[in-house]
Design a protein that fits this description.
elongated; 2 helices; mainly alpha
């Protein structure tokens, strides 16, 4: 689990770095600020999306390992007296 988190953080940092410096070379003033803010937004979106994909996969694996059975004490079920 920690390995996956480290990989997601590294990919996010790499995306922000690539978009931050090379993509903004030669820009000045307001254009530079706007381009760097966009690079930051894109990089963070990649990180959030990657984290969501990892979490969905973890949830799917957990769900499939339980055999798809619901316990009798799960939320939403009530014993009939």
């Amino acid at each position: 689990m920690w390995t996956t988190a480290i990989v997601v953080v590294a990919l996010t940092a790499g995306a922000v770095t690539v978009l931050w410096w090379p993509a903004t070379a030669g820009l000045n003033g307001a254009e530079l600020v706007n381009a760097r803010l966009n690079a930051l937004k894109i990089g963070l979106s990649i990180g959030v999306g990657s984290g969501g994909v990892v979490e969905l996969d973890r949830w799917r694996r957990q769900r499939s390992s339980s055999g798809g059975r619901r316990s009798s004490t799960s939320a939403g079920s009530s014993p009939i007296a």
